[in-house]
Amino acid sequence: MDPIPARQRIEMLFDSFEELALADGLTDPIGFPGYQQTLDSAPGEAIVWGIGRVGTHRVVAALFEFSFLGGSMGDVVGATLEAAMSRALTDGLSFLAVTASGGARMQEGMFALAQMPRAVSASVALAAAGIPRITILGHPTTGGVYASFASLSDILLADQGATIGFAGPRVAEAVAGAPLPEHSHTAEAAYEHGLIDAVVPPQMMRDRLTLLLNILAPAIPQDVPQMDTTSVNVGDAWEEYLLARHAERPTNSVHTSNLFDQVFEFHGDRMGNDDPGVITALVRFAERPVVLIALNRTHPNASG
């Protein structure tokens, strides 16, 4: 699997895209041998950012370019990420990151490592303001980029088959001194362990992004109809018990699919576990974005 170039990804995701200038930053802070020559001969940087439109929705997007020094994060990349998140905060737009990176840029030493808390701080400001943060983890996403702002996002999507993890598989294998488990560091393994919300083929990512933006769009004021309880017929306790325990009583998964037209299920506790007996989803209800939490009582893990 090859990394998807940033501008190809733009064509895959957006109806239109206004690319904006990179932020100013230090370009060769420690005088690493040959690094300035590499920068002078390369077009652009390891990041592209701007305002994209998906259907009727505008988002601020920052996309990593792996072909530029492995999508590594140096001072210019960190400054640009900060500028992109600040623009999302100012304009009240959702922020989308599309990552493909090996982590911090070794040619900039500690200046590169300092970009991780810089990006985290900007991301935390978005969270405090209630601005949705979505990250698409492309192939590969490792190192400090994954461990910092990318994994903090509210919604984590990943390309099918992408390599994901803090230390790359070769580094992890060298440290462990033994072969890694099969499928280690894959998007699918991360999903199984509750670390990401969905694994999506790249050609279907636009549809998933559109669904998310539809649900997360600002609430439209609307009166919520009140339930009329005057006609509810409550039987005796034993009858109600039998109904509650009836084998054909609809599950919450059935209710979810019947009640809501737009549902995005998310998974896991981001700490290595997922309880399939708990349904968690973003839905749109009465023109409002809503978080849904429900138990699937038919699953062995359900306890309520």
Can you walk me through this structure?
This protein has helices at residues 6-13, 35-41, 75-91, 109-113, 115-128, 143-152, 169-176, 187-192, 205-216, 237-244, 252-259; strands spanning 16-20, 47-54, 57-64, 94-101, 133-142, 155-159, 164-165, 198-200, 263-265, 278-285, 288-295. It has 304 residues and is an alpha/beta fold. Strands 1, 2, 3, 4, 5, 6, 7 and 8 form an 8-stranded mixed beta sheet that branches. A 3-stranded antiparallel beta sheet has the order 9-10-11, with helices on both faces. Helix 6 links the parallel strand 5 and strand 6. It is globular.
Structural class: alpha/beta
> Judging from the principal axes of the Cα atoms, what is the shape?
globular
Low-confidence sequence ranges: none
Find the count of extended strands (DSSP E, 2+ residues): 11
Main pleated sheet = 8 strands, mixed
Mean pLDDT over the full residue set = 88
N to C succession of SSEs: HEHEEHEHHEHEEHHEHHHEEE
Count helical runs. 11
The CA-CA distance between the termini, in Å, is: 43 Å
* Rg, Cα atoms, Å: 22 Å
Strand content: 15-25%
Residues in helix, %: 25-40%
In summary, what is this structure?
The chain is an alpha/beta fold. 34% of the residues lie in helices and 22% in strands.
Write the layout of secondary structure elements.
Elements: H1 6-13, E1 16-20, H2 35-41, E2 47-54, E3 57-64, H3 75-91, E4 94-101, H4 109-113, H5 115-128, E5 133-142, H6 143-152, E6 155-159, E7 164-165, H7 169-176, H8 187-192, E8 198-200, H9 205-216, H10 237-244, H11 252-259, E9 263-265, E10 278-285, E11 288-295
Parallel strand pairs: 3-4, 4-5, 5-6, 5-7, 6-8
Antiparallel strand pairs: 1-2, 2-3, 9-10, 10-11
Helix pairs in contact: 3-5, 5-6
